Amino acid sequence: MALRNHSTITEFLLLRLSANPNIQALLFVLFLGIYLLTIMGNLMLLLVITADSCLHTPMYFFLSHLSFVDLCFSSVIVLKMLENLLSQRKTISVEGCLAQVFFVFVTAGTEACLLSGMAYDRYAAICRPLLYGQIMGKQLYMHLVWGSWGLGFLGALINVLLAVNMVFCEAKIIHHYSCEMPSLLPLSCSDISRNLIALLCSTLLHGLGTFLLVFLSYTRIISTILGISSTLGRSKAFSTCSAHLTAVTLYYGSGLLRHLMPNSGSPIELIFSVQYTVVTPMLNPLIYSLKNKEVKGERSLRDSSDLPQLHKGQARWKRPAFIEGHREPGDPEPSVLVTPRPGGACACSALHSAPTALP
Questions:
Q1: 358 in any annotated domain
Q2: What is the pLDDT of residues 183-218, one digit of tens each?
Q3: Which of 118, 125, 158, 164 is 20 to 30 Å apart from 332, CA to CA?
Q4: Residues 6+ apart with CB under 8 A from 207
Q5: Closest by alpha carbon to 322, among 130, 120, 134, 126?
Q6: pLDDT at 64 exceeding the cut of 90
Q7: Position 352 in a domain
Q8: Rounded CA gap, 306 and 223, in Å?
Q9: For residue 12, is it within any domain?
């Protein structure tokens, strides 16, 4: 079979979602609506987090970057999909395909790392609440967030640089509606062993590695919640991580189903792919926004009995209700005295990063 270098082949053919023009028009309207909801939802979440000083906490810093990643991820996939739904030939240039592969790697890898960092934040908030301000200091969560971006870019750069040297066959049909590395590799007629090794390492790091971190964090979280004596306490503790747990389940569940399916272009594979690449970025801001009532409830606790009370120049710490009766080894005593600043502000900086201010 004759071989061609990728510089000779100028474009790839992408899979049609439907051969019926009427169905394609309906799909265009549907995906355009989903994309607009994704953009509006994530932008609004970013604006709210930026504007509200009460949300300048580690968890919401993670969430702001997660929203930005979802914006990028959705734009990389959906915009090209919308263009192809309106065109007769579903094509993408070689350069455009490699660029799409690069940004898919960056956004997917970064999101997985961010979710694992958020899981650790929830672990610190629920399992070590009195030490939360010390554990999740600014230096740590900044390193976690920017480290997530760094790992995402590193994995993308390695995989795409190796893909640039691939030699492609005459057959140039990608059995998917977008360019992803698993869909691109079968088109190569050259040795792809290094590409497979790089892809495997990226999958182990961003997929299995981050999933294990999330799993271990939530194993400890659930164990702590089950150890709380009161039903109300368990409910309050679980509410602080339920939104993140829902987002994690949706992301890893749909991603696992997507990558376990063969790259055959079957309807079931396309459904799971759309769920992973199109629907999930739209649902993330909705999931966290629906938990906003819990955020408001937690804010009200800061003026009630669960947070430090000022009495005649002193502040007394009262253990949050959801951890009453639960204390980790090494935690400070439940009652401490701090000196208030002029104007009633408390001198204890950890109070401003208390876990009850988080979702």
A1: no
A2: 888 888 888 999 999 999 999 999 899 999 999 999
A3: 118
A4: 112, 255, 259
A5: 126
A6: yes
A7: no
A8: 22
A9: yes
